[in-house]
Amino acid sequence: MDNFISDISGQQFPSEQRILGASIRQPIFKLIKKEYPSFSKDKYIAASELTRFKETYISEFLKDESGQLSQLDQQVINSFKENKVISASLDGDNKEPVSVGDRVADKVAEFGGSWTFIISFILFLIVWIAANFFWLNNKGFDPYPFILLNLILSCVAALQAPVIMMSQNRQEDKDRERARNDYMVNLKAELEIRELHEKIDHLIIRKEQELVEVQRDQVEKLSFLLKKMEKIEEAFKNK
Q1: Do 71 and 180 contact (CB within 8 A), yes or no?
Q2: How far is CA 186 from each of CA 6, 27, 59, 76, 180, rounded to the nearest angstrom?
Q3: Mean per-residue pLDDT for 76-87?
Q4: Residue 102, phi then psi, degrees to nearest 5
Q5: Residues 22 and 60 in one domain
Q6: Is the pLDDT confidence value at 72 over 70?
Q7: pLDDT tens, 200-234?
Q8: Residue 134 belongs to some domain of the structure
C-alpha cells in the first residue's frame, strides 16, 4: 500500500487519506494555517488530521454570542464526530413515562374538543329542559330558570378548563421537543452536506491532478519518441 508523509505532522498515512491544501475550504484552511504557518495549498494533510480542524471550525461556527456551545449544538457535534444517526438517538431519548393525570387530561381534552361532546351535551340539555319543563310541568327537581342546570354547567366549565390547559401545556412541551429535534436534525444535515461538498471537491482536484500527471507522462513519452526519431533521421542522413 502506498503511503505519503503529512506536511503538518511528518507522519506516514495511507495514500487514500491524502488531501491537498487547495481542496480544503478557506475557513478550515485558515485554522490549519494558524496552527501550522508553513502549510500551503500545494501541501498535503491526512483526512484523520483534517477531522480535528473540522471539529474546531464547527465548534467556533456554532458558538453563540456568549462564546459558548449550547447543549443541542454539542450533541450534534458529538453525533457528527462519532458518525451516528442523530434521529435514532432522539427517538430513544424520548421514552418518558406518562402519568395517569396526563393521560386523563389528554383524553378529556380530546373528548371535549370533538363533535361527539358537543352533540352529546346538546342532547343532555334538551332532555334536562324537556324533562323539567314539559314532562314534570315545571315542578320537577330543577324548574325554570334551571338553577341546578346552571350550577352543573358552571362546575363542568370550571373543571374542564384547567384540565384542557394541562393538556395544552403538555402539547406545548411536545412541540418544543419536536422543534428541538428538528433543529438538531437540520443542523446535522447541513454539516453533512458541507462535508459531502468537501469530499466532492477533493475528488475533483485529485482527478485533475491524476489527469495532469498522465498528460505529463504522455508528453515525456512523446518527447522521448521525437528525440529518438530525430536521432534515427540523423543516422540515415549521415549514411
Answers
A1: no
A2: 34, 21, 16, 10, 10
A3: 61
A4: -65, -40
A5: yes
A6: no
A7: 766 676 676 677 777 878 888 888 888 778 777 77
A8: yes
Residue 238, number of CB atoms within 10 A of its CB: 6
- Are 148 and 56 members of one domain? no
What does the buried/exposed string (b/e) look like for 42-81 if buried means 16 or more CB atoms within 10 Å of the residue's CB? eebbbeebbeebbeebbeeebeeeeeebeeebebbbebbe
Give 69 or 21, the one with higher predicted confidence: 21
Task: Give strand pairing partners of 123.
Answer: none
pTM (2 decimals)? 0.47
Query: Each residue of 9-53: pLDDT tens digit?
Result: 888 888 777 887 877 877 788 888 888 888 888 888 888 788 778
**What pLDDT does 165 receive?**
85
**Number of domains the chain is built from:** 2
Measure the CA–CA gap between 82 and 69, rounded to whole angstroms: 18
What pLDDT, on the 0 to 100 scale, is given for residue 119? 92
- Co-location of 71 and 151 in the same domain: no
Q: Range of 113's domain?
A: 102-202
Instruction: Please indicate, yes or no, if residue 231 is contained in any of the structural domains.
Output: no
Residue with cell 480535528: 52
Does the residue 56 lie in any domain?
A: yes
**In terms of domains, do 39 and 128 share one?**
no
Phi/psi for 5 (5° steps) reads: -105, 125
Specify whether 183 is located in the same domain as 110.
yes
CB-CB neighbours of 167 under 10 Å: 21
C-alpha cell at 33: 494555517
